[in-house]
Design brief:
- This protein has 327 residues and is of the alpha/beta class.
- 45% of the residues lie in helices and 11% in strands.
- It has helices at 22-38, 53-66, 83-96, 102-108, 125-131, 145-162, 165-174, 177-182, 188-206, 212-222, 273-278, 287-301, 323-326, and strands at 13-17, 46-50, 71-73, 75-78, 224-227, 236-240, 251-255, 304-308.
- Helix 3 crosses helix 6 (145-162).
- The radius of gyration is 24 Å and the shape is elongated.
- 36% of the residues are buried.
């Protein structure tokens, strides 16, 4: 809240919770949030912070749904783990070997790919995929699929010879990916991912040194995307520790305070350093310090805080506490 004021620590009630496992940690948080709402607390005043969104966000979403708790969760995706990312990266793989390969089969098996080329007017990607399932060479493919595949591979060869991001963008357009993503029936999440990928390609172009397609491959494979909820008002927010901004809440729950879940400051490949620095979707250099600072800010401004971490993994191995707990 913009008008939030910092409280003295003796005005903040801090509780630590050590559930036996991560599912238990999530269930405990669900009960506590439900009780707060039952006591008349405004959902806007409750924030649930997770150190590892990929490990917690979906579990909390299921828990809150089961308890009829209104919530909004920002979901983080690795771009290469989405349909859009898979299509874009597989298209780059095809440029390395413009013939019938597993890359071509994977590309045509992607629901977002429906080539917009003359020979494809009466052929769809599913039919073409089936036609090349067992084919090793173009001569093994029956018409009209042979002509369609031949035209697609010729287009890929032209782009590979050109080697520019602009040529690759045209190839993506002719694969029909953009048209499919922008279609009203496609989920908004796919559009979020696609636009993030476009910004990555913009950054690659701005920092290009000639080997643009190889740089694009590394950049797209390294970027993550946050799909922000469209409605926040009247909902309990679930946020990643590294993506908090300067948000504050009266009642705060911080989950996953273990060394393995807490954001780390991994080294980046030198090849993508320039792109990383130019592109806002990449993580900042020191995520651990940023997360520690923002969690500390939340604690200082809240009325009640629950610091939580699971005691052990499913195989019984004990978790190590995150350093911020000792502080």
């Amino acid at each position: 809240r913009p008008d939030a004021t910092t409280l003295w620590l003796d005005e903040t009630t801090v509780e630590t919770s050590g559930a036996s496992s991560r599912p238990g940690e999530v269930r405990y948080t669900g009960r506590q949030v439900q009780e707060l709402l039952g006591d008349g607390v405004d959902p806007n005043d409750i924030g649930v912070i997770v150190t590892a969104p990929s490990a917690y966000a979906h579990r909390l979403a299921s828990e809150f749904s089961a308890r009829s708790v209104p919530y909004a969760v920002a979901r983080d995706y690795d771009l290469d783990g989405t349909s859009v990312g898979a299509a874009l990266l597989t298209a780059l793989e095809l440029l390395d070997e413009t013939e019938i390969t597993d890359a071509l089969r994977s590309l045509l098996d992607n629901s977002l790919v429906e080539p917009v080329l003359p020979s494809w007017e009466h052929v769809d990607s599913e039919q073409a995929h089936d036609a090349i399932t067992d084919a090793k060479e173009l001569s093994d493919v029956e018409e009209p699929y042979r002509a369609a595949i031949d035209e697609l591979l010729a287009e890929a060869k032209t782009v590979a010879d050109d080697g520019s991001i602009e040529a690759y963008r045209r190839f993506v357009e002719r694969l029909g990916i953009e048209d499919t993503v922008e279609d009203r029936t496609t989920t908004g999440s796919q559009r979020v991912v696609y636009r993030s990928a476009e910004r990555v390609l913009d950054a690659v172009e701005r920092t290009g040194d000639g080997a643009n397609l190889e740089r694009a491959r590394h950049a797209l494979g390294a970027v993550s995307v946050t799909d922000e909820p469209t409605i926040r008002d009247g909902r309990v927010e679930v946020l990643g520790a590294a993506e908090l901004g300067m948000r504050t809440f009266d009642h705060v729950f911080v989950l996953g305070l273990t060394a393995s879940h807490f954001p780390s400051s991994a080294n980046r490949l030198a090849l993508v350093n320039a792109v990383t620095d130019a592109h806002p979707d990449f993580a900042e250099a020191d995520q651990a310090r940023r997360a520690e600072y923002r969690i500390a800010s939340l604690v200082a401004a809240a009325e009640t805080v629950t610091l939580s971490r699971p005691k052990q993994q499913l195989d019984g191995t004990e978790y190590i506490d995150a350093g911020i707990l000792a502080e």
